[in-house]
Design goal:
Blueprint (H helix, E strand, L loop, with lengths): L9 E3 L15 E3 L8 E3 L10 E6 L11 H14 L4 E7 L3 H12 L3 E8 L11 H7 L3 E6 L2 H4 L2 H14 L4 E3 L7 H20 L8 E6 L3 H13 L4 E6 L4 H14 L10 E5 L10 H14 L8 H14 L1 H4 L3 E6 L10 H4 L20
Helix pairs in contact: 1-2, 1-6, 2-3, 6-7, 7-8
GO molecular function: D-cysteine desulfhydrase activity
Protein name: D-cysteine desulfhydrase
InterPro entries: ACCD_DCysDesulf (IPR027278), D-Cys_desShydrase (IPR005966), TrpB-like_PALP (IPR001926), TrpB-like_PALP_sf (IPR036052)
């Protein structure tokens, strides 16, 4: 199935000229996203002197407001189809943006989708809220496992166990890792840098960004941005804000992808990683949620609370604490999408969500004809 303009089309992949020497170049992509995504000035309040923040709207990549996962899945879904898979397996939390995007993309391509989701109570129906509602509407097969299994058994063993089960049932499964963050998925944001490079060249002002700010959840997006930034010659610094785990684990994760593609540099040349986990992955403080609300009210940009909300919160706090570090810099913030999970935080956000009151109708008002 293909659409107008090549949508849903499998096509050969030609890498950017500056990345053509890398290893493991993908052979094909499947056009399930809508690109390019726009970049616009983001009028955030209380910026350091001379600082400009621009925002790349990856929340507009298509696939149900999927965000950054769409770029990675273009490569992974093409590989699944090329290998003759009839279904895909992936994994994440109950409100995983990645799981929801994978489920929808699989349906586009007539593939079954199995989601292994970590929950506190695996014997209880978690209901229909946020991303989970979309997962169930598009017909994903959802398998609930205790959250502790992630640590006790590990994702690789869980993937393999379930893969063998499906093979025994006569299926041909393809595993998509958490966050679509493997070496193949890294090409999504190598190519994303090509898009940014083209957008910069098309602008009359030829704006030069000093920093890219992005949330770091599984490492693939940061790895692709770093490789693209380095090899393209843009040399934009990548300021990553970790929402899931420690800086140390991400350093090894991202460097391994750089090395596997033989990009030939140390991530510390371009990448800094700052911890903004707060209460932990998927949990939000009242202050963080108020920040999301205030940014929506002041700029019209809606951030999710798990990824880009925490990254923007961390960026603004760092600008306040260390203004000299940011003064005069041009910053490109990557909005990684994922707003559906906010519905899961509605009770927490209700006290400051906005005015709501009854409109009193004057008795003198008469019906219009």
């Amino acid at each position: 199935m293909t659409g107008f303009g090549g949508f849903l089309e499998k096509k050969p992949y030609v890498p950017p000229s500056w990345a053509s020497h890398l290893t493991l170049i993908p052979s094909h992509t499947c056009s399930i996203g809508r690109f390019p995504t726009p970049i616009h000035k983001w009028e955030l309040p209380n910026l350091p002197q001379g600082t400009e923040v621009w925002i790349k709207r990856e929340d507009l990549t298509g696939i149900l407001l999927s965000g950054n996962k769409a770029r990675k899945l273009e490569f992974l879904m093409a590989d699944a189809v090329a290998q003759g898979a009839d279904c895909v397996i992936t994994m994440g939390g109950l409100q995983s943006n990645h799981c929801r995007t994978t489920a929808a993309a699989a349906r586009y391509l007539k593939l079954d989708c199995y989601l292994i989701c970590f929950v506190e109570y695996p014997n209880k129906d978690p209901g229909l809220v946020g991303n989970l509602l979309i997962d169930r509407l598009v017909g994903a097969h959802i398998k609930l496992v205790p959250g502790q299994a992630y640590f006790d058994i590990g994702p690789e063993a869980l993937f393999e166990m379930f893969r063998r089960k499906l093979v025994a049932e006569g299926k041909k499964p393809y595993i998509i890792p958490i966050g679509a963050s493997n070496t193949l998925g890294t090409w999504g944001y190598i190519d994303g840098i090509r898009e940014i490079e083209q957008q910069i060249q098309e602008e009359n002002q030829k704006i030069q960004f000093d920093d890219i700010v992005v949330a770091c959840g599984s490492g693939g997006t940061v790895a692709g941005l770093a490789i693209g930034s380095k090899l393209s010659g843009l040399n934009i610094k990548i300021k990553a804000f970790s929402v899931t785990t420690s800086r140390e684990s991400f350093v090894d994760n991202i460097q391994s992808k750089i090395d596997e593609l033989q990009a030939g540099f140390d991530l510390n040349e371009l990448v800094t990683i700052q911890d903004v986990q707060g209460l932990g992955y998927g949990f939000s403080t009242t202050e963080e949620l108020k920040f999301v609300k205030e940014i929506a009210t002041s700029t019209g940009v809606l951030l999710d609370s798990v990824y880009c909300g925490k990254a923007a919160f961390g960026m603004m706090n760092d600008m306040k604490a260390n203004p000299k570090k940011w003064e005069g810099r041009k910053v490109l913030f990557i909005h990684t999408g994922g707003i559906y999970e906010l519905y899961n935080k509605s009770d927490q956000m209700l006290p400051f969500a906005g005015d709501l009151s009854k409109l009193e109708i004057d008795e003198s008002v008469s019906p219009t004809a």
